[in-house]
Write a structure and sequence with these properties.
This protein is α/β, with parallel strands linked by helices and 239 residues long. The longest helix is centred in the last third of the chain and has 20 residues. It is built from 9 helices and 7 strands, in the order βαβαβββαβαβααααα. 35% of the residues are buried. Helix 4 links the parallel strand 6 and strand 7.
Length: 239
Amino acid sequence: MDTDTRRPDEEIPFYHPIPTADRPLAGLTVLVVEDSRFASEALRLMCLRSGARIRRADCLASAHRHLNTYRPSVAIIDLGLPDGSGLSLIDEMHRTSPRVPVLLATSGAERQAAARASRNAGADGFLPKPVDSLSAFQTEILRHLPPEMQPRGPRAVATQLLCPDRLALRDDLTHALELLDQDRLPADYLRRFLLGIARSARDVGLLETARALPAHLAHADRANLRALLADRVAGMEAV
């Protein structure tokens, strides 16, 4: 027997999650524009623990496809993307009305300069890599949210550090090897990509190598970098 007593023209209520002390970002949709799978996985874990939904774009073109479909509550944009600078997307989203409530930048390359440039482009805040502190992640988003989207009552400080799946890091290292094999090597992009994953993975050796990379990689530079990356990948496969 049909027990639905609603009128035919009555709308079905839509459930919208309410933020709580332990899930302060419940109800939010976070768009992560990030080319590193390892960094994206870290942010996915942050969103999962915080109650937010996550969508990911790995380049500017993909980000625009997302934004043509919906408006996120929060956007976290890496500055070094394969098809251009994240600063251009931040500037565009900052000028778009209605504006995304929280617009954050992230980078692992020249972080102080990146933070200044992102603020000048219109970002509300900056998340330096590695992004592995749940407390810092939640705090940076919550302090820019409008009052009506804030969780009510006191919030316990989340002290844990989240560690992404190392398979995602291996995928990033493999991608860097593929970039090295290109005839027209995008050296500047490769350097920024390596700086980001080195910071995210806390790999001091790779970080120092990436910092020292010249603007134009000679054959010997490519060979040395290829050997280092291949060694990292082989070591992960042996574990």
